[in-house]
Amino acid sequence: MLMLILFFVQVGLGLLLALQHNDPTLLAGTLNFNVVRSTHLNLGLIWILSGFIGSILYVGPLLSKRELASPWLIKFLFYAVVAVTLWNVGTQSLAMQGSAGWWAGQPWLQEGLEYIEGGRVFDVIVLIGFAILCYVVLRTFPKVREWNEIHWGLGLGVVALTVVWLFGMFYVPRVDLQEYFRWFVVHYWVEGVWEVIHISLVGILIVLLFKVSVKEVGYAVFWGILLVWLSGLLGNAHHYFWVGTPEFWQFWGSLFSALEPLPMIFCFWHIYLDAHANRKPLENAPAFYFILGSVVLEQVGAGILGFTMTFALTNVWSHGTWVTPAHGHLALFGTFGLLVLGAAYYAVPMLRRGKPGDFDQRLGRLGFWLVFSGIIGLALAFALGGTVQVYISRILGFEWLSGDLMPSMNLYKVLVVSFGFVLTVGAGVIVYDLCTLGRQTERTKATEPAPAQIPARPATGWSRPLTGFEAGTWLMGMWIFGFIVTFNLLSYNLDIVRVHGDPTLPYVLAGIGYPGLFLTTLLFVWRFLASMEARVAEAALSPAPNPAAVGGGGRA
To answer: Which domain holds residue 163?
Structure first.
């Protein structure tokens, strides 16, 4: 419930940011843009962490077949998360007065470092919270010799959550060294440790949804985690290019950053295999919708768009422009946010009704498509606006707030507001649906007439079974458009663009690459889910259909 509240507030602040892009005077002096942006970023991290904590504490006992250890500590952790959230939101306004609360050489109130703006008080309480989570999870798990791959993934994840956070808990006067350690937290903690937890949670949720073998899913989880850490350790160097570190990082950072999409591809492929292993109909459609969306946007946002931006020769143009939030929104909200919402759609029906599909699933489906299309549209607006920004700011040399740049961004600023509104409506639908899910079930059973018996037909056309070859073709299509986007950013290095100022080539490549990538992504998810939904009809055609296998609630 805490996750849902913070999720809705955070998305609302994002819509406010989009409006402030169009009217910089909006709430100026009351809620300045920099404060709203920092709060938006921080709440994004906190609500996703709340979802991670809730998901881990829910699946941990199921995975281990043991009761949750020390539930009183979890209650304490809950109030600690609420406290640090209020502290973080309250202290961000101090940035408007330039007050950091310095004492003993440390900023105790707020420190102004992007993504980790909370001051030292915030850092210490968060560290204690992670230590509590680590203790409870490890105590709940069986002895180490009895662990399977998912135990190892979640166990390593909660330990690393605590350890890596230490890199952000001290102040270094030298800006280059401070940035060096800040990116340890941003990359290893979010892009590394969170990825390990993400892969592990996807694995256990697929086991629960489709009753597939833990051993088979564990094999995929093992290789996914191994690839994340092998590519990510040196891949972190793509953050080092412009903070005064040695020049050799431009080669090695580019090389290993280019390898980081490998675990995303593996995760994408294993969810296809697991979802089609036994061809069971969807019992809980919204939960799988969000899990699939998470894995696909991990591939597109973290993998493909991350790949396009992390070479030194592309990063020099994209860094600090709107191209970056196109990657960031899909990588953070798309990958981790959709996953924890999917976990909520699995857990809440089980907690309230004892059955995974025993609820009216229409609002969940609607909420998914609103937030999924909204976040993709938002990324498209950022990417195309960023292409214009790179040319006018980096090639022509005009400042961001100049009278030349701002009018050129007007169309894309309006698009950001439009898609942000769609995303906000979707967030409201999801929050309402999950908060009222138990009562919905009771009302539906009491008042809803029995559904009409419609003759089921074999799935054909768009709903036909999805083969591995077709899924691979969709994946290849995404990467082809991703390479076009990469060439778009590389083209700024050409003399015709950089010296002569001709934007034709980067504009054409961006106009083909970004819409093609996002449209392919949207169509693929639609195609995947259509083939999954068609299994209900297939089950109805069987000689002796099993109603329990078709899905509860009458609307799956």
So the answer is: 148-278
